[in-house]
Amino acid sequence: MDLKKPKTQNILNCSFNAVTEQNVLQWSEGILNSPDTHYIVTVNVAILMMIRSDERLKRFIESSTVTVADGQPIIWLSRLLGNPLPERIPGIDLCQKITKIAADSGKTVYLLGATNAVLNKTERQLLADNPALIIAGKSDGYFDDHETENRVNRIRNSGADILFVAMGVPRQEYFIQENLDKLGVNLTIALGGSFDVISGITKRAPNWMQNYGLEWFFRLLQEPRRLGKRYAITNTQFLVLSIKAFFKK
Ligand code: UDP
User: Fold this and answer.
1) Which of 9, 44, 46, 52 has the CB geometry, 3.0–4.6 Å to 70, for a possible disulfide?
2) Which residues pair with 190 in a beta bridge?
3) Number of the ligand 1 atom closest to the C-alpha atom of 112
4) In which element (H, E) is residue 188 found?
């Protein structure tokens, strides 16, 4: 994958790379053997709506090396608008596959985010899936601003090659944005609630629901109080903007 290639597919004012998951994984392998630091962004419908009013989050996404769509509705819209994206690329899949690449190539990972209990289970699961994996360190995602420097130092001193950050949107993005140059890693990616899923605390939607763009509904059933209002707003906004964009085209 050519990193110099600009992001081309514009969907509701967000530029995506028209790449497959395989492209991203190949590129990640290359990055892990380079001295550079890059980050991947996986944009779902909620994030796509949030960047319309969050300038800081928008800048973070615009500055990423790779931006992919983590949601079937974005793929459908890309097709309707004549800028098709090849496929949905969920952050959790990238996490699990990049972890396998790390295990196979002796690269190390650092886990940042969620509670210590979730983190311990996530670590156990990743090691069960990849016995050769080296986890350079881990820290929970519940800390005050004045502890940020300590977290950053722990990550850098661990010597990790890859950093997975799962502290929810937009906290995880702000963390990477503010500290990217100090982390000492080659590759980082923000993963939302992925540690909850990997650890088995929450369940992932079955494939058919993911393919029908219903992953949000499955999450809503599990956490109706926390996610109800969020999805009511972002899904409606997405639908209205999609219809407008379609007719404008
Ligand atoms: N989290 C965290 N620090 C915080 C708030 C949340 O580490 O200050 C964790 C939380 O434990 C969960 C994940 O971040 O594991 C966020 O999950 P959520 O489902 O909110 O992700 P999103 O919907 O934003 O992708």
Assistant:
1) 44
2) 165
3) 7
4) strand 187-190
Separation CA 149–CA 248 (nearest Å): 47
The answer, as to whether pTM is greater than 0.70, is yes
118-138 tens-digit pLDDT: 999 999 999 999 999 999 999
How does pLDDT run across 172-190, given as a tens digit for each residue? 999 999 999 999 999 999 9
How are strands ordered across the β-sheet holding 66-69? Answer: 66-69, 38-43, 187-190, 162-166, 108-113, 134-139
Q: Give all domains of the chain, ordered by start, each with its CATH number.
A: 8-198 (3.40.50.10700)
Residue 140, token pair as written in the block: 């929970």
167: number of CA atoms within 13 Å, CB side? 21
Ligand 1 site-directed mutation target among 172, 196, 218, most atoms within 8 Å of CB:
196
Structure tokens at 88: 């949905």
Report whether residue 90 contacts ligand 1, using a CB cutoff of 6 Å: no
Please give the number of the atom of ligand 1 that sits closest to the Cα of 219.
19
| pLDDT for res 190 | 98
